[in-house]
Design goal:
- By secondary structure, this protein is mostly helical.
- It has a domain at about 30-100.
- It has four helices and two strands; from the N terminus they run αααβαβ.
- It is globular.
Length: about 100
């Protein structure tokens, strides 16, 4: 669905790139015991459940990649993406670089 903030041609190009990245570059994160134990701590900080899962997954990914435990992942830089201000503040407190598409130049 297009909200008219991008010209139609740029929206179509961006959508194709996103779809390509979604299929070829993104991998789901298993909500196993490691992530769920982080969720428990994040929920205690006052986040809603879905936001807690989002942040806990990012924490797990950052920590796991920094230890070199994920094959084929070279970067240890995890940028946290959200347009929710409360979630962004929680991520900043956990030393993430936060990208908010609503406030991006």
């Amino acid at each position: 669905m297009q909200d008219k903030s991008l010209p139609a041609r740029e929206f179509a190009r961006t959508r194709r790139r996103f779809d390509s990245d979604w299929v070829s570059r993104l991998s789901p994160i298993d909500l196993g015991p490691a992530v769920l134990s982080i969720v428990r701590d994040v929920v205690r900080a006052g986040l809603r459940s879905a936001d807690a899962v989002h942040l806990a997954s990012a924490i797990w990914l950052r920590d796991t990649t920094s230890l070199g435990l994920i094959p084929d992942v070279k970067s240890t830089s995890v940028v946290f993406l959200t347009s929710d201000e409360k979630l962004a503040q929680a991520a900043l407190k956990r030393r993430f670089e936060v990208f908010n598409p609503r406030t991006a130049p």
